[in-house]
Amino acid sequence: MKFLKVGRVAIITRGRYAGKKVVIIQPVDTGNKSHPYGHALVAGIERYPSKITRRMSKARQEKRSKIKPFVKVVNYNHLMPTRYTLELEGLKGALTADTFKEVSQREDAKKTVKKTLEERYTSGKNRWFFTPLSTSIHPISSGLVLDHPLQSHWRWAWSMWPA
């Protein structure tokens, strides 16, 4: 697909990493022998960095700024592209089709992805990419968000309770 280019940020819609943000490293439109369909080599964030505040110590801030990445071959049907792009120069040669043949190569690729993403996060660029989807896009725009299915019933019950 023409719009799924290198650097495009997408969201995985199916499987273990559903709802996770990824950046496309290498699109393969025609497919190949091992994957005979349009797919992309992607790098994404499995565990997002936690919230940090100024009151926290430097060590705690560093610990909470850690990112757990993943690398994967994803079918185009399971990607939802966004309007955002991410320029990651360090990942151009790190992830290729040969990376997925051996586990050690995959682990090395994950380490380079982790390093580049953490550098990007600490520099303060592309903040949207480093927040989990549930906090950046809210499903209910009306403002009423129910954390529990019975929450509306509880509110009604408490309003009827004599003071």
What does this structure look like?
- By secondary structure, the protein is of the alpha+beta class.
- The protein has one domain (8-160): SH3 type barrels (Roll), CATH 2.30.30.770.
- The protein is built from four helices and five strands; from the N terminus they run E-E-E-H-E-E-H-H-H.
- The chain has helices at residues 58-64, 103-123, 133-136, 151-160, and strands at residues 8-12, 21-28, 39-47, 68-75, 79-85.
- It is globular and about 55 Å long.
- Mean pLDDT is 83; it is low at 136-144.
List the defining traits of the structure above.
SH3 type barrels; 26% helix; 163 residues; alpha+beta
Count of individual beta strands:
5
Rough outline: globular
How many helical stretches? 4
- Biggest β-sheet: count, sense, barrel? 5 strands, antiparallel
Work out the radius of gyration: 20 Å
* End-to-end C-alpha gap: 63 Å
Q: Which consecutive residue ranges, at least 5 long each, have pLDDT under 50?
A: 136-144
Enumerate the strands of the largest sheet in spatial order, edge to edge or round the barrel. Answer: 4-3-2-1-5
Order of helices and strands: EEEHEEHHH
- Average pLDDT level: 83
Structural class by helix and strand composition: alpha+beta
